[in-house]
UniProtKB/TrEMBL annotation:
Keyword Cytoplasm among UniProt keywords: yes
Protein name, entry field: Voltage-gated potassium channel subunit beta-1
GO cellular component: cytoplasm; plasma membrane
Catalytic activity: a secondary alcohol + NADP(+) = a ketone + NADPH + H(+); a primary alcohol + NADP(+) = an aldehyde + NADPH + H(+)
NADP-dependent oxidoreductase domain segment(s): 4-267
Membrane topology, as annotated: Peripheral membrane protein
One Gene Ontology MF term: voltage-gated potassium channel activity
Superkingdom field: Eukaryota
Compartments where located: Cell membrane; Cytoplasm
Recorded family membership: Belongs to the shaker potassium channel beta subunit family.
Keyword Repressor: no
Major localization class: membrane
UniProt entry keywords in alphabetical sequence: Cell membrane, Cytoplasm, Ion transport, Membrane, NADP, Oxidoreductase, Potassium, Potassium transport, Transport
Length: 280
């Protein structure tokens, strides 16, 4: 955290299921859904939102978080109950704002409509997966929501769980995340036909990174940052060296010209098109 903060990072994302400078200079968020094994310790019921956030604050020894996120949708809890509970914790001073994570555009719109109907507080931000191989939601769906209701985008997994680092180019290294039993799904994704195609594209992208004088991970993070609709890119690292490398993406950002972005789009071949693109 010290390396990150001294390098200019001021947002720290946590969650109640995950294992403290001056508080006013940090933006600290937390996510609620998976709290414990009991039915009352997970989900987005009023009980769990209030008790889960209180528990997170106690563990972090904080009076409040800047943003509390609903870590996924909860089909078992009425939307009105969720929005009322989020409004309550904000009014109680436990959070400044609330947002969503992994919600569909329709679910976010429903929360906004409920908030307007009952004079409650709507979500201000969606945490969405966004990287070179996952683009539709952040580049098409969320911009439309932003223009309609002002919901911003905070993105996660810019390196696609390590796939975009290039370390899986020649298979699954023994010490990698994909070699762990709990990440069998990641291993299957990497060795699939689509996974092999992605590795081939990463080889081509690495040539662009070399021309820009950066690493492939730095190029990938800078590519996420260059999107004007993205307010923050969340980084997850295993050691200080990875963090320092990823933060180097800030120096690459000025090099992300329209020509470079077009080159990347040409290699990826997956640019999504919005209604606005078709109209123009």
């Amino acid at each position: 955290m010290t390396i990150a903060y001294e390098s200019g990072v001021n947002l720290f994302d946590t969650a109640e299921v995950y294992a403290g400078g001056r508080r006013s200079s940090f933006v600290i968020t937390t996510k609620l859904y998976w709290g414990g094994k009991a039915e009352t310790e997970r989900g987005l019921s009023r009980k769990h939102i209030i008790e889960g956030l209180k528990g997170s604050l106690q563990r972090m020894q904080l009076e409040y978080v800047d943003v509390v996120f609903a870590n996924r949708p909860d089909s078992n809890t009425p939307m009105e109950e969720i929005v009322r509970a989020m409004t309550y914790v904000i009014n109680q001073g436990m959070a400044m704002y609330w947002g969503t994570s992994r919600w569909t555009a329709m679910e976010i719109m429903e929360a906004y409509s409920v908030a307007r109907q009952f004079n409650l507080i709507p979500p201000v931000c969606e945490q969405a997966e966004y990287h070179l191989f996952q683009r539709e939601k952040v580049e098409v769906q969320l911009p439309e929501l932003y223009h309609k209701i002002g919901v911003g985008a905070m993105t996660w997994s810019p390196l696609a769980c390590g796939i975009i680092t290039g370390k899986y180019e020649n298979g699954i290294p023994e010490s990698s995340r994909a070699s762990m039993k709990s990440y069998q799904w990641l291993k299957e994704k990497i060795i699939s036909e689509d996974g092999r195609k992605q590795q081939a594209k990463l080889k081509e992208l690495n040539h662009i990174a070399e021309k820009l004088g950066c690493t492939l991970p730095q190029l990938a993070v800078a590519w996420c940052l260059r999107n004007e609709g993205v307010s923050s890119v969340l980084l997850g690292t295993s050691n200080p060296e990875q963090l320092t490398e990823n933060l180097g993406a800030i120096q690459v950002l000025p090099k992300m010209t329209s020509h470079v972005v077009s080159e990347i789009d040409h290699i990826l071949g997956n640019r999504p098109y919005s209604k606005r693109d078709y109209r123009s």
